[in-house]
Design brief:
Blueprint (H helix, E strand, L loop, with lengths): L7 H12 L11 E4 L2 E4 L2 E5 L12 H14 L14 H14 L3 E5 L2 H12 L5 E5 L4 H10 L2 E5 L4 H10 L8 E6 L11 H11 L2 E5 L14 H5 L7 E5 L9 E5 L7 H4 L1 H4 L6 H16 L2 H19 L3 E2 L7 E6 L2 H14 L1 E2 L1 E3 L9 E6 L6 H23 L1
Parallel strand pairs: 3-13, 5-6, 5-7, 7-8, 8-9
Antiparallel strand pairs: 1-2, 2-3, 4-10, 9-10, 11-12, 12-15, 14-15
Helix pairs in contact: 2-11, 3-11, 4-5, 6-7, 12-14, 13-14
Bound molecules: 4'-deoxy-4'-aminopyridoxal-5'-phosphate.
The site of 4'-deoxy-4'-aminopyridoxal-5'-phosphate (PMP) has 14 residues, from α4.
Length: 401
């Protein structure tokens, strides 16, 4: 029995993509030039699908901090936080994050994926139920499988549907109920209707974990995310975030005011049994967090750019995935071959966006997904819109022939 045979459908899809003109699945960035430019296939390309929301990957202070950490602390910790990989800088970053987030406790994980894995499987056990929004990120689904908890899915962004499921679960409060929501959903860019979900929380009682991966640093007066924007931080029991987007490095965190929060350092296997982040990563993350605190204008710039791109796409008549403006600006395309062909044509024009296809998308939709950066100029945004316009026009011309 060939164990890889079950993945034959991926090979088939890869073949179809090659037939449609995609030379490589998984674009290779030959040279990265800036937060918004790279050389891809010999062409200078505008990057519009990086999640580099604040555009601080080339920030001088961050780079200097990383270089210094390499010089002083070496290339890696070579161990987990529970063993030899717990440096003063890891604890310092946790304290800085706690201050930024206005939470008592923070635990830093090696990636955002592991933050969800560790937090969710540390909180929920075999006797508990985890209620997941149907459009939850893969790391949230995986965390739920690892936890052994019962998984109940509710309709995307539908608090009434969650309420129905909670009402049906006649568990007399004997088992734990964890509801997981996301600040901004990564594919469509829509926010969770937090107030309505919290009304349900008040009625039925559950523990709320909010994954602010795409909203941390982006939304709210203090840049803390959706709960900050909505003025509902006190109602959120646990927050998860990642460093791979607005922080421009790699890593993740969990945060809470729960007095027993630190027990998760022993209960979360994704924390215990993996090496801690390298010194350079921790140092750049700390420096980036300082940038977010000291430069709130980055958020304003990001909002300005997101609004400009959203409006530009709407004016082109593209089918928007979401009416609300967020840095994720995604559009529906009718079918998989058209999406692949358009994505490829955009790359040939000189813009990189994300090709998003099932099973990684909600409702098996096919999308072209852009993420906007504060580092984009108005001219960059206009170029992205113009390249989409060219690709759409050439498809319409071909259809008319
Ligand atoms: N949560 C959400 C909502 C995400 O979109 C992602 C990644 N895109 C993660 C968690 C995982 O974060 P990371 O890629 O930093 O591991």
């Amino acid at each position: 029995m060939d164990l890889l045979a079950k993945h034959a459908h991926f090979v088939e899809r890869h073949k179809r993509m090659i037939e449609l003109g995609v030379k490589d699945v998984g674009v290779c960035v030959d040279e990265i030039l800036s937060p918004t430019r790279a050389m891809i296939k010999g062409r200078e390309t505008v990057l519009a699908g990086t999640n580099n929301y604040m555009g601080i990957t080339f920030n001088e202070a961050c780079i200097e901090a990383g270089k210094h950490a390499l010089d002083v602390c070496g290339t890696g910790t070579t161990g987990s936080r529970m063993a030899n990989g717990n440096y003063a800088m890891h604890a310092k970053l946790e304290a800085e994050l706690a201050k930024f987030l206005n939470r008592e406790q923070v635990i830093v994980f090696t990636t955002g994926y592991q933050a969800n894995l560790g937090m969710i499987s540390g909180l929920a056990g075999a006797k508990d139920t985890v209620y997941l929004d149907a459009d939850s990120h893969a790391s949230i689904y995986d965390a739920c499988s690892v936890s052994g908890a019962q998984l109940v899915r509710f309709r995307h962004n539908d608090p009434d549907n969650l309420a129905k499921r909670l009402a049906r679960a006649n568990d007399a409060g004997e088992t734990g109920r964890l509801v997981v929501l996301e600040g901004i959903y990564s594919m469509f860019g829509d926010r969770a209707p937090l107030k309505e979900f919290i009304d349900v929380k008040r009625e039925y009682g559950y523990t709320l974990l909010l994954d602010e991966a795409h909203s941390f640093g982006v939304l709210g007066e203090n840049g803390r995310g959706l709960a900050d924007e909505a003025g509902l931080e006190d109602e959120v029991d646990f927050v998860v975030g990642t460093f791979s987007k607005s922080i421009g490095s790699i890593g993740g965190f969990g945060a809470s005011n729960h007095p027993m929060f630190n027990v998760l350092r022993y209960a979360a296997r994704a924390y215990m049994f993996t090496a801690s982040s390298s010194p350079a990563t921790i140092a750049t993350s700390s420096a980036a967090l300082r940038q977010l605190s000291e430069h709130p204008e980055l958020r304003d710039r990001l909002r300005h750019n997101s609004t400009r791109l959203h409006r530009g796409f709407k004016d082109l008549g593209l089918k928007m995935c979401c009416d609300e403006v967020s840095p994720v600006v995604a559009v529906f395309v009718d079918d998989e071959p058209s999406t692949i062909t358009m994505w490829n044509a955009l790359l040939e024009e000189g813009v990189y966006v994300n090709l998003a296809l099932p099973p990684g998308t909600p409702n098996s939709s096919c999308l072209l997904r852009c993420s906007v950066s504060a580092a984009h100029t108005d001219d960059d945004i206009d170029k992205i819109i113009a390249m989409f316009a060219n690709v759409v026009a050439s498809r319409q011309n071909k259809a008319a022939e």
